[in-house]
Amino acid sequence: MNPCIGRTALRLGVVAFSLALAACGTAPLRTPASIAQSLETAAADGSVDSLLDAARTYETFNDPRAVGAYERAAAVTPWTFQNSQAEEALGRIWTHGELLHGSGPNIVQGAALRPSPRRAERWYRAAAAHGNPMAMLMLARFYRDRGDAANALRWDLRATIYHRMSSESSRLPQAIAPKDGVTHPLVLDIQARARRGDADAQVDLGTLYETGMGLPRDGEQALHWYGQAAAQGNVHGQYFSGLLLGRGRAGVTRDVDAAAGWFAKAYAQRFYLAGETYWRKTIEPPFWTFD
């Protein structure tokens, strides 16, 4: 049987089974043995597609085996953008200690599934480092919910550069605007750490200059600070250098060849948005900018 047809049939069976349970007013608690066996048989090929199918189906049944399937999918080689989808899903699961489609109790490796901020942060960061834009937004929310303004700002800004707009919940322009002519303390801290050579702070400073949030908009300064971080191997510095050069805005001359060089460095670190099929589309006009 064609594996794609087999997976489609399995999904349809899962949907029908779930609807039947819903009609009875009973929430599914575990994957029926026949479906679980089909999932594991398909996932035995070790492909990320099969493992993600298994993980998502297990979640449909509120089955904690979803966690292990996502972890296996995240580790599959050769690496693809789908690995980052598994990483982001794990961040979501550990943030709240629950699966998407059900409620506990769930048992993972002999212990009850409960929130684990440490694990959530680790998986979200892995996904963001691999170019997952949703993980950037989720990290901003993760830190904002925990009162960590500096890290929330960092990931709001990175998501803003990718999405070309600030998230509604962050209220970034107002949140970091100078008051009475005085630069916001968070911005001052970013500047100080960037000058000391902190690569993440250098990316942060570049985003402030590119967006014109908290500091006057200056594309050349943005490119300078992105480049400082990129030279240290920071993948966001490399990717944002490519974006700014590829689009050519705010006083920066468009240079697609130079952009391609930075994208290649980011892609070598498994930042999937820096793949050529993605970045060439991203720099094609028309696109919204901060002008």
Q: What layout of secondary structure does this protein have?
A:
Elements: H1 3-23, H2 33-43, H3 48-60, H4 65-74, H5 81-96, E1 107-108, E2 111-112, H6 117-129, H7 133-145, H8 149-163, H9 172-175, H10 185-195, H11 199-211, H12 219-231, H13 235-247, H14 256-267, H15 276-282
Antiparallel strand pairs: 1-2
Helix pairs in contact: 1-2, 1-3, 2-3, 3-4, 4-5, 5-6, 5-7, 6-7, 7-8, 8-11, 10-11, 11-12, 11-13, 12-13, 13-14
Describe this structure in words.
The protein has helices at 3-23, 33-43, 48-60, 65-74, 81-96, 117-129, 133-145, 149-163, 172-175, 185-195, 199-211, 219-231, 235-247, 256-267, 276-282; strands at 107-108, 111-112. The chain is mainly alpha-helical. It folds into 2 domains: 3-130; 134-282, Serine Threonine Protein Phosphatase 5, Tetratricopeptide repeat (Alpha Horseshoe), CATH 1.25.40. A two-stranded antiparallel ribbon has the order 1-2. Helix 1 (3-23) packs antiparallel against helix 2 (33-43), helix 11 (199-211) packs antiparallel against helix 12 (219-231) and helix 12 (219-231) packs antiparallel against helix 13.
**Share of residues in helices:** 55-70%
Strand order of the largest sheet: 1-2
The number of E-state strands comes to: 2
Low-pLDDT stretches: 12-28
Report the end-to-end length measured between terminal Cα atoms.
54 Å
Helix/strand class: mainly alpha
Largest sheet: 2 strands, antiparallel
CATH architecture of the largest domain: Alpha Horseshoe
- Based on the structure, what is the oligomeric state of the protein chains? single chain
Number of helices: 15
Shape: globular
Q: What radius of gyration results from the CA coordinates?
A: 22 Å
- The CATH superfamily label of the largest domain reads Tetratricopeptide repeat domain
Query: Which CATH class of the largest domain applies here?
Result: Mainly Alpha
**Number of individual domains:** 2
CATH fold call of the largest domain: Serine Threonine Protein Phosphatase 5, Tetratricopeptide repeat
The SSE order reads: HHHHHEEHHHHHHHHHH
Strand content: under 5%
Q: Roughly what is the average pLDDT, rounded to an integer?
A: 87
